[in-house]
Amino acid sequence: MTVTEIKTRPIRFKLRLLSALRAILDLVTSFFFKLYYGTEGKKLPAITDDILKQPATEVARKIRTKQITSVDVVEACIRRIKDINPIVNCFVENRFELALQEAKKADEIIRSGTKTVEQLLQEKPFLGVPFTTKDCVAVKDLHQTAGVVLRKDYIAEEDAEVIKLLRENGAIIIGLTNVPELCMWWETYNNIHGRTSNPYNTTRIVGGSSGGEGCIQAAAGSCFGIGSDIGGSIRMPAYFNGIFGHKPSRKAVSNHGQYPTSATEMQGDFLCIGPMTKYAVDLKPILKIISGENCKKLNLDKPVDIGKIKIFHQFSNNAPMASKVDPEIITAMEKVVEYFKLKYKITSEEKKIELLERSSPIWFATMKSNIPFGSYIIKDYTYCSIFREIIKSLLGLSGNTLIGLFTALVDYEVVDLGSEKYKHYRRLRDNLEDIFKEMLGDDGIFIYPAHPTPAPYHNQPLMRPMNFMYTAIINSLGFPATTIPLGLSSEGLPIGIQVIANHNNDSLCLAVAEELEKAFGGWIEP
């Protein structure tokens, strides 16, 4: 035995012990959560308007060709939202009247015949198509609370850049969807709008922070949605709700108009806005619009030959504080690997990237800034005020959520961005990025769990706080990643994967999403 092996044995033993304790904790707490919540929740009514079951691009085509009116589609969304929202609480503010007025104008443009169908496709590809966005992306004259009680009366004065671009391309914003407090947790709950429930089983979470958006897409309340992602906030809700969600390459989409804003350049690299859809085919046209001038560097029109891509996969990050990956998720990944082998003769290479075990400290350290989390949610931000609010929260008297306050407590200490500790984790992050870049090249994809389990019960993330690291580490590295649904678990909950490509190779992720949608069925109506 070498000296290195002797030195690392105690460390490996501690890691194995932590993993064992993690597994026991999951087993015990799952039993009690199941006992408390039961196995079934409230059922959603069936989708009665067939147009809501179709891709947004197909809805746009039918509106352009006068097979259906924009008013018909907006009214269908309104009916659906009114049907589902009392059950799942995903939708928090509407602009229905204005949306109907805009829909009438869209229909008038089409009826006038001043533009050909082809001209409309080129100039306003989503003319008359209704969409929604999460309540942290600014929509003019609507609230922009980000789930923070201190901002409950804040009204946005202008559209966020992505909303502006979509409206210029004919899309109609119909309202806002729910988020966690300050969008910094992976269950959607706040003390303004309450908790959002999973449409497949209302005892389960929808994820966060774009949880309301993931829910409304799965339940077919709008034709497509816009989410944002700093640690998995698009991909986890997409995964938990059985839809597609794409986190674009770093800085490919403008963050202008999103709250909270990035406090450091590194946070700005982590944070991004992207599309959430029921159908993979909608991801690319939406991304082409919201990426604006950056669309050119993403090469979205460049054809992708699936038969010539390289595939890599890893079943787990092996982090001791994360739950073990559910066997059904591993089976789903194996089926994807087998699919590519049988259809395209591509053998996926299994990887064991050891640095992924350090996902949590890398993400947390490099996410730090000189503006603490709590300063956004608490007046007179001090240790005393945090503890006071925690006591009030336990008594049901605080405007803050308990997880928000605990996060504020942990984040109280301002980081020194010039410290050796910060530099150390920055180097680890850079090393991990280099490993991925070398592996992926120009034609490689990495198949990886989007989350280690199907959607947990409400409040269960408190027992599994580090599980979001499967998505968060990809934010740290800046790569594009797409969540792809792969059917339902034995409990009837969505499961799937995320597919990751090299910087600005978003088209690879999107092409694989379309391929796997055809092979495995994609979105399933709740």
Automatic annotation (TrEMBL):
Q: Where is the active site?
A: 134, 209, 233
Q: Which gene encodes it?
A: LOC113400556
Domain Amidase stretches = 72-510
Q: Does the keyword Membrane apply?
A: no
Keyword field: Hydrolase
> Highest lineage ranks of the organism?
Eukaryota, Metazoa, Ecdysozoa, Arthropoda, Hexapoda
Record-given protein name: Fatty-acid amide hydrolase 2
Q: Does the keyword Aminoacyl-tRNA synthetase apply?
A: no
**A GO MF term:** hydrolase activity
Q: Which organism does this sequence originate in?
A: Vanessa tameamea
